[in-house]
Design brief:
The chain has about 325 residues and is mostly helical. It is about 80% helix and about 0% strand. It is built from 14 helices and no strands.
Amino acid sequence: MTQKAELLEGAAVAPAARLDRPKLFLADGSLFLVAVIWGFNFVVIKSAIETLDPMLYAMLRYVVAFVLLAAIMPSSLVRASRSDWIYGSILGVFYLTALVVQTYALQWTTPGKSGFITGLSVAMVPFIYWIIARRSPGPFQILGALIATVGLGVLSLRGDFTLSLGDGLTLVGALCYGLHITATGFFAPKVRSATLAVTQIAASMVLCLIITPFVTPVTLSLPWKEWAAVIWTAVSGTVLAFVVQSWAQRHTSSTHAAVLLCLESVFSATFGVVFGMDSVTWRLLAGAGLIFSGILVIETLPTRSVRRRGSAAAAAD
């Protein structure tokens, strides 16, 4: 979700009026593919941590991702300033915490539920920003958050109105992703996106290298399937996502990109069902549908409202 953070907090994207249609289709298709891969990765990670400790998985994934990003963008690492490292380290703490908590939670929940609950991070961002910057969420953000919260209740609440351990931890992970998205919104205008990506992955890797030995024995002697999961998620979830999104977000609208990337949760449930990790139940369909609807309200209605006001102002002139 690293690059999704920059997008959801207003990273630079192409103005809608200047979009080149062939590039628009290619950009939208690329972002759709990223969402498919992210959704599939929920299944990959759940399968991997059946035999691989989640903390060791996170450490190896960050090491692989950092090595690849540093090789692709060495200048972004070498030229990073002290302030760049401070911003990247703060983001790295949020991102690492979110990923580790989400990964541990996957031991006790399904890919589909994990994907949709994680998607609630989008609904949390306006309220986190409200607490920090004292800027009240708009009516669409409040409406979307209410719809998504009802969806969470339908999807996860048990008879005694409590969450299971896995769903509860996933919700904590979603909060950490929300903090990461909000912090990215503050830092992204001050740092090049490539530098911000490399420094936060580097900080996450260092933290993992320090913490992991205290949690589980560190070993590189892993079955090929576990190494395949580590390498695949590092490449597809971090490196490929950065490269693809950095290009695609310059050739599509912010609304297109936000909605396409939020399809991650839909594909997490789809692949969960295909691989027998999720069951199609009325709670999954209704809860997931409400959560996704709430996210769409937050992502699309404010943009349309701004466009209508802009069109009205232009007509008045």
